[in-house]
């Protein structure tokens, strides 16, 4: 899909990968719908990006998802791309995972992307064109102690993406998965539980920049390939 003049909805757009992708997409000529809970941040970003709008949205709230999609359609008349980027980490061994923490992360990392997909697919069907990019994690490439709860949500998202892609074959809608490696964002600051453990686990790691991931996301939109990963070959990835 061409990026220029497309309408791209990005969740979790207030910082990190989401904000970097918004900037890259706008620079490539897209009209961007910035969605996040932190309204002040996305309004400030929208002020920097020509042709973009900011819509406060908690993607765990169906009514806010519906309002986001309706606003995008009212403003631009179409939605060409959805980037399901909003998410949260969780670090804890399996026997110690707090079930409420797990339910919260499951809701944000898996249920919310599904709800977003369901909300945009009807408009994409009418257009006979659309691209959905679900953001997973390079942690799915290894069985690292303490990552089970988080990885479970991301593995499930990857399978959901692959099956949705097959279901939508022939409609003009592609569903793809982006798998970043460790990226310099607010991820560790906003982790649901186990921040100290996660920081210790990633100590000394070489982090990608959000801009590197953003560029890869735009490449994936253009190619329509099923997956793309930024995981080094030493960890089982393709880079």
In short:
By secondary structure, the chain is an alpha/beta fold. The chain has helices at residues 16-27, 39-48, 62-76, 99-127, 148-167, 195-202, 210-223, and strands at residues 7-11, 31-36, 53-56, 81-84, 130-135, 173-179, 227-229.
Explain the overall architecture.
- This protein is α/β, with parallel strands linked by helices and 239 residues long.
- The protein has a single domain (7-235), classed as NAD(P)-binding Rossmann-like Domain (Rossmann fold, 3-Layer(aba) Sandwich), CATH 3.40.50.720.
- The chain has helices at 16-27, 39-48, 62-76, 99-127, 148-167, 195-202, 210-223; strands at 7-11, 31-36, 53-56, 81-84, 130-135, 173-179, 227-229.
- It has a 7-stranded parallel β-sheet, with helices on both faces.
- β4, α4 (99-127) and β5 (130-135) form a beta-alpha-beta unit.
- The longest helix is centred in the middle third of the chain and has 29 residues, at 99-127.
- The protein is globular.
- The model has no long low-confidence stretch (mean pLDDT 94).
């Amino acid at each position: 899909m061409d990026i220029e003049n497309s309408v791209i909805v990005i969740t979790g757009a207030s910082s990190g990968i989401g904000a970097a992708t918004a900037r890259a997409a706008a620079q490539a000529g897209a009209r961007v719908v910035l969605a996040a809970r932190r309204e002040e941040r996305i309004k400030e970003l929208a002020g920097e990006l020509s042709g973009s709008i900011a819509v406060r949205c908690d993607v765990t709230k169906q009514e806010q998802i519906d309002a986001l999609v309706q606003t995008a359609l009212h403003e631009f008349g179409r939605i060409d791309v959805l980037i399901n980027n909003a998410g949260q980490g969780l670090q804890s061994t399996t026997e110690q995972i707090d079930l409420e923490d797990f339910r919260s992360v499951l809701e944000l990392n898996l249920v919310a992307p599904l709800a977003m997909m369901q909300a945009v697919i009807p408009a994409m069907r009418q257009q006979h064109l659309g691209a959905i990019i679900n953001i997973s994690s390079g942690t799915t490439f290894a069985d690292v102690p303490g990552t089970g709860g988080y990885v479970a949500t991301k593995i499930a998202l990857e399978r959901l993406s692959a099956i949705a892609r097959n279901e939508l074959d022939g409609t003009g809608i592609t569903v793809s998965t982006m798998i970043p490696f460790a990226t310099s964002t607010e991820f560790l600051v906003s982790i649901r539980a186990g921040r100290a453990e996660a920081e210790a686990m990633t100590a000394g790691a070489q982090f990608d920049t959000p801009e590197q991931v953003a560029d890869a996301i735009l490449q994936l939109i253009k190619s329509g390939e099923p997956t793309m990963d930024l995981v080094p070959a030493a960890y089982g990835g393709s880079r």
